[in-house]
Amino acid sequence: MLTTRPERWDRVVDAIIVGSGGAALTAATMAHDGGAEVLVLEKASLIGGTTAVSGGVVWLPGNHHMAEVGISDSREDALAYLRRLTCGHEHDPAVLETFVDTAPEVLSYLEANTPLRMQPVANFPDYFFAYDVPGKKSGGRSCEPLPYAVGDEIPEWRDRLVTRGTLMSLGSNTMLAEDFAEPTEELKAELARREAQDIRTKGAALIAMLFKGLLERGVELLLETPVRELIVVDGSVIGVRAEANGQSIFVAARKGVVLACGGYEWNKEMVRAFIGYEVQPLSPPNNVGDGLVMAMEAGAQLANMTSYFGQPAMFDPEISRDGELVPQFEWGRGAPGSLIVNRTGARFANEAMPYNDFPKAFGAYDATQNEFPNEGPGWMIFDQGVRDSTRILSMIPGRPTPDWVPVANSIRDLAALIGLDADTLEATVATFDENASQGRDPLFHRTELGLMAPGAVRPLNQGPFYAVVIWPGALGTNGGPRLDTNGQVRGYRTPVIDGLYAAGNTAASAYAWAYPGGGATIANGMVFGFRAGRHLAAQPARDI
Ligand SMILES: Cc1cc2nc3c(=O)[nH]c(=O)nc-3n(C[C@H](O)[C@H](O)[C@H](O)COP(=O)(O)OP(=O)(O)OC[C@H]3O[C@@H](n4cnc5c(N)ncnc54)[C@H](O)[C@@H]3O)c2cc1C
């Protein structure tokens, strides 16, 4: 952190937005519309961060599209649902309320004032719809972007916008709703049209539409320009030192800086220090905690540091980058003839629970035995029935089993192959099978609870048996600077740090570790990006 003014400023603007994901581009839009001169600085060579490779789903309770699918919502319902899921651990109840109060306006404002267009994802309930929780909805809160014709609308930027998401299980140019639809001739023709016209979907569409809105406003975005340090003079954040072409550039911000540069999931040391166990990152690799370091240096209060937006991860030896395996999304978790065990060979959680929550079970501490019995990796064990019906990484039904997959004719032999205690694994599978044959899971309630709907069980009764390693993974971390309701960063020494805002995965999530429904992470970022940009623009310009 620099604590004196540089000898010269290379640029002077009102607002510096750090990052170009959903949180950042929303903040930039609002700062501009509030009258601020805005500069967006992005470290990567592509626009959009994790948001651009994501499903692009945004969870906005009370949004105006809910009526189109005949679902009503209310502040009370949304808050009752969220409060039940946070279990009272939100870092500030007022910030949680602000999320609910602002969410509808974010979508209506952006649809009215930018090219962004969204629709509710059909048949997509809140993630805890199968649970006995208040305020849950059967759909409508999760919206997804409509396809966007990047080829027609912003052809000069097409190579600097992500083309397709990294989610292997989903199509590259389908909408989420279409991923689960019948592959009709009409849909195939539509997908061919999208390919031909460079029409993008999901997170790539979300970012492209928000970015087009910034282009229309004349907001400048510089790629390959990482922000390295804040410039903080007399307790006020007045600018940043960034790097461009290997040179330092000093940019002043008359009104403020918004840190919207993602989480720290790619920073192994930070993950170890804050979360406490190994978690595999699933986002693009630039999110190494730059925003967190800058906020800490400026004296930010932190919150939610042990948490992250979870997603179980797997490794496929056929997918690597620069000689290193790249963590992949899980496949097949909760398939009826499968279960997941820890390093002792015991089950440890309901395999069908929401993807944010399952990874957290890997971090459980056993105070009786003084150990972490579930520390990764775990093993997903499944039978031939699952092998024949479910794709798992590059293991595809009907095709030869890849060499890297352990296969054995008995559970005992499988245990020996993967180094687990054979007696324990055999007993685990026997108990599971006995209960599953009666359609029950008294240990972990898999037949009663699961993501959106109860899970299912079936005995593992068709050998041979297979095993795949499964790890806790992160879509992004969600601990960081504690915000007030305006998206300003709170300080330890002062109520807020003058001139410093944060949004998205750089900041502490409004809903603690909870992931209430599809799109909750991007929504958290867009809502507080929205508030930060608007508040920042309304501040008097400081004499830099
Ligand atoms: C495959 C996949 C699918 C997902 N699907 C969904 C979904 O449908 N809905 C949902 O809600 N969530 C989803 N998630 C999670 C979601 O994408 C992220 O939580 C969210 O996009 C984070 O947004 P953000 O704006 O905080 O950060 P990001 O989108 O990660 O943007 C941060 C940006 O900051 C840049 N940056 C980092 N350091 C610096 C620096 N020093 N200077 C300048 N720039 C910097 C990064 O390069 C990056 O571009 C998904 C995640 C993955 C991986």
TrEMBL record:
This is Unannotated protein. Transmembrane segments: none annotated. GO terms for biological process: steroid metabolic process. One of its GO terms (molecular function) is oxidoreductase activity. Coiled coil: none annotated. Keywords: FAD, Flavoprotein, Oxidoreductase. Residues 14-522 form the FAD-dependent oxidoreductase 2 FAD-binding domain. The keyword Oxidoreductase applies. Its cofactor is FAD.
